[in-house]
Structures
1.
Amino acid sequence: MSSGWLQIHETGPGGAPGNRTLAVCFAPTGAHGASFASWRQRLPEGTSLGLITPPGRGMRIDEEPVTDMAAYADAVTAELAPAASGRRLILIGVSLGAILAYEVCRRLHSTRVPVARLCVVAGQAPGDFGGTGGGVTLEDARAFAVGTGLTDPELLADPEFEETLLPPIQADLRLAAGYRAAPGRPPNVEMRAIRAIDDPHVPEAAVRRWDRWTTADCTVLSVPGGHYAHQTHPAAVISACLDEEPGQAPGASRRTVLGTGATVAAAALFGAVAPPAPRAAASPPAGPTASFDGDPTDPVALAVAMIRHDTSNPGQGAQTLPYARMLDDIFRAAGVRTEIVPTPTEGNVHFFARVPGSAGTTKKPLVLLGHSDVVPAAGDTWTRRPFAGEIVDGHLYGRGALDMKGVNAAFVAALLRHVREGTVFDRDIVFWSDCDEEQGPYGVRWFLTEHPGKVEAGAVLTEGGWVLNQHDGRTPMIAALTCNDKRSLLLRLEAVSYATHTSKPFGGQAVIRLGEVLEQLGQWRAHIRPNALSRQYFDALARATADPVLAAAVREMLEARTEAQRDRAGETVVRLSDTPELHNALLRTTLAFTAAQAGYYPSIVPGTATAEFRAAFLPGGDDPGRVVTELRSLIGNQATLTVVGNPGESEEDVLARLRGYLSVRDSTADTDVFRAWQSAVSRTHPGVRATAGQFEAVTSAVPFREQDVPVYGMYPFTVDRDMLKRMHGTDEHIGVEALRLGAETVYQLLAGLRSAR
């Protein structure tokens, strides 16, 4: 269906009308329906795509642009009302399109045309517009286009492009300049306000203000990407807008922002918006406690309940308070003392439960440290709902099942089983559910700095080493308790060419150059250089494996006298391993590519393309500065390689800080906690070789290790290659029976710390 303002693309079989849901999209400043071109193949089944194209752009390029918001909304409403008949209508507006969608929603509501949901993406709320009017010139439009990254300045030097690009932008800026929200009661419509975490133009405070513009629920969500996330991360935005369940934790307020903070850039459309003031720490707000009705000594039931709390951390913290309240309820019911400690980010908290040791004990506490936040599940397609905690074919699915709510469940279940049995330990046992482990400023390091002496740990157990099977996939062979972490360095590539019209492509386009450089870096391999912990682990692996060929390759690698011999044998070890990605990471510096960005307009070949990747280093392995020099030499002048650090840091500062982290000593294995773990493994996994090892990632352990507190990492359940690959990935899962056995391992470990009195 197509009319003046509205085009409807039917996505059902044969493109025939009849889809139950109609999602109507309003484009951002200066754009039109083509801005949503990639959405057509991504919409959920039974959903049609409606595109709003105003005059002066797209198929209506020869028409005079509209600069009056009321006229715009009236015209769209007149066409949309009959088209929406019999359908479930969802309105989706991006940037200025959010205001346009809101005004259309108001008009539909007043004429009793039902709107099922209003989704506003990367947009200022109606009250942020002053309606002062004033002249908006082509120079204002030019400044907006350049300032927001909508186009390159050099492209606007071409009169042909200026004549095409600037009038629609100017028209939309006039719409914004003259807009003032009408007084009166807001519509009663379910709203989803969506913020892109890297958007420099619409801060968190502006996203929060949308909840004032509906009398129904407003769910505020974060997605990856910048201001034009609907183009760069369409799957994430579609999921946030159209997913039937926003994934909120049971009992949590739906008026919640998942993520905090943004840099505010003043621009013509957005006005001068002051950055939100830092929040002072305060007591957790009153609210309902998310109850847990199962057996708290059952790790599977606990893990399901934990997963169902969406504690996604999009970059600046997560909403962990409902999760902490559930834990508080569980431990208090068992008679255990608890505490919830807030951070400056509202709703993002640390949780503590302390089981006291025997009277007069002089031993410092053992801390069971498990982070509450998880990485987002947006952007990739799951076959299971990421926050449903579903058990299918003996596996528990959900974001955090592996990293690390499964471990948290094992910790809690094992500890409360001892509490139920009346066990008295020879020291305090503290369960600490920390926040901001994945990203954010208020994690363990912040807590230890802001609350010195509150946690005087004698040793710490957290996430880390793995239990792996033999080639048969059923028989456990080795368990590692990790005693140090790798550390990583963020690097950025930039390939530069020139921007031009897509009708005149050329061989040296920035995107092509970037792709060529990424291909080179993707083929790069660091030398095999196992450190002391990796050597100890692989020596144990050679003794544990039932595969004589793998054992021989490991021994050849460990005994190699030359770099070439060690590299050759190490590559063989990786090739023969059932978990090659894991074992490769334990042997060398690795590169992981995380992001790429190029392009901003459908008819423009961009002049710049960028990518980011992480180089992860073993303590005692490669020097980070030498690796950066080697990578720069490899790519030559094809692209610029930049070391990314904290604001104000030079490259030398970043490298020095990283070298300091890499010099932190390994945790000693000569402790009663390490020996209790070895004894526990011998009970739950007879015949399995238990060894110290190196962890391939970074954890919250670093601040403790810097204070010479022994920190040990464990995932106490068996895993296979597929499970490891899904860590931070799609369809994350663990085995149900493996989780139960893992909880038993933790129980036996704690049993080794009983008081002798």
Note: The radius of gyration is 28 Å.
2.
Amino acid sequence: MASAATYTPDPQPTAAQAAANQRPTSGKNPEAGPPFTKKDGVWEVNTTAPTLRNTVTDPDGDKSNLTFEVWTTDAGGKPKSRVKLTDDNEYGVLVSSFVTSGKTAQVTVPAGKLNDGQTYAFHTSAFDGTLYETDWSPWATFKVSTPAPAKPAKPTGVANNGKPGEFTVSLPAGHTAQWVEWQLDQSAWKRVDAAGKTSVTIDTGLRTAATAARAAADHVLNVRTANNGGASDAVSVAFTGNGTGNTGGQDHAVDLTLPNPVSTAPNPDQTKQVVTGKVTRPLGASASSSPPPPAPSGPKEQCGPVGKDDGQACFGVPVKFDDLPDDVKAKAKKLRAQDPAAGSDGMTDWCKTNNSGALATRTVQCETKQLPVIYRVDGKPIATAYFTMTREISVENSANSFTHRLNIHPILIAPTFRAIEMVMDNRTCVGSTAAQCKDPGKAELSDWDRKPIWQSPTDTHDASLTTTYKWDNSAKGAEYDLRADFMIKGLLIAGNTPGPVFMTDFRWAMSDPSDQEEIRCDTKGAASALSGCVFKNVAPSYTFNAAKYPQAAAHAWLLQEKLPNTMGVKTRDTPLYYLPGGTRADGKKNRDVICDVANWAKDNGDLSAMDGAGDKPNCDEFAFNTTYNSGGMPKAEGGLNEVSSGSQCVQTFTKKADDGVVHLYNIDGHAPTWHEVCGRSAISGKHNSGSMAGFSGFVRNMRLLDKDPYWLETGMSGQCKQDPKTVKCTLRAN
């Protein structure tokens, strides 16, 4: 430990230096720690990498540093031999950074230089960049005494990793274990290094186990963590044979009978999306990012001023179609039966409806309101007209625009009204700047397809207006949240000629709008799809080709049906959330965590289940690698189902059974608890890759960005017999 060279402060400045400068000095009370406390004149240090410190003063006010020299001590506590603390200089001394005069300078001794239980002495010498202190500070002695660590937390899981006799032991985050200790069938404890690891592999030595002997070849594996402070409680796992199973033919907790693959089954058209009324926001988005203009809570009447004769016109609160007066509802049905598509040219078929409410796909949103127009005198209703107002927004097939179609259909106009006219007073793009989305402004009568003027109760024509909104897609990598809004000005002529004229306004956003209508436009795509728009709060569905690739579909179907987190199921409102690339902050793929054992699929898969020449077993993980739902995604990075190893997931494999049909079984020794949050399965590589072949196109067409929600339709259904522990089903492709 002693250095061969002896360090001595340089006492010889030049004459000019001596005349212009004064030497710095070390403080008289050097300190060592943590915890920087003394006992019987000796500093108590609880680490082998202590911090040493002392003050330094320069009469000229110059910044100075300190050189620290550490020595071993003899039985009487006196310095004995110098300790080499670094290879950065020939003396092995540590030098602090420069500090302001009167302040404390300090260094930290590198780990491995000092020994636990030993007493040391150190002193310091100052330097101001020109002159050295000619002496050392007083000695300070310190004793290193590190406390014994607390017992570490026990393992979070232990399971066979698919290789004969090998088990993966999962460790809790931030553990303090130095070793994992294991014991097979009450034999002597053995240990493997665990310091800094998230999991370790232990080899029990059980390389083979005869199938016929499995029933009698039960084993118990005990596993615990340990450090210098002791060992944790043990985690036990019972298993048969060598732990892998899969060829014993015994009754399985999971037994799904799969349909035979149909090689000619066409792949689903992922662009065809089911119309939905559901609002599903991106992960972590609690509310709209482009809210409508401020409005009172809930819809309310929108009224014009009171006239000289105390008359007033109002657009009433929208009424659901089923809540209309019976005579109005009957007339509406009769009119639509005569001409169901009247006035709605250009709208999608499912938007041509009397039904109130909002419906959407990822690229088309439609909302219908049954709107009363009320004429009052002295606050009392004199006459009411009813209109169906339907608005459709389409963002399909355009790189820098979207289309707004408004259709107004009169249901009933009371005879009291001599005429009603609707004027498009303004059209706006809310949540944007003019540079992002330009407001088209007011529309002229000539812009309408059939004028929005009704001059008698028998006038039932539809009026429609199509507006194109342009947005700026020149900035690459940009993302904008937009809403289209408009205000209609109603002009009502009541009574006899000439009759009074009343005016009132109706703003769409003031009438309980749906968050479905929030548009996101971005320029984060590629090639011809570089820019475009979608309805960000409408989750699209990715559909498996279950007929062609039943093994992958069956695996996902099982987990969607049985696990508590039911990932990707629309009816249970548990979407998958897209993670581009599936990569964690540490550079690992989520798949690396779930399929974390080399050759796991090969060791657990069965060649009888392969689909054609060249097909090999592949590790199929669910939820997918490219989702925040993946068990490999850390909670600290937004992960929803974090595990430390795929051994904590439901583990299955496919095999052709004696009946000649491929089944999906649980791996022997790994009966699911159904409390798992993920799954991995050794299935046909052809089925695994084929089932996801359309996903890149789906991501592109649906413009999925980070944390966007989507659904998974497995295309499977089953007839099952099950209880809390077992599930046995015959599956078919829908």
Note: The helical segments are 15-20, 326-338, 550-562, 590-594, 600-604, 685-691, 695-701.
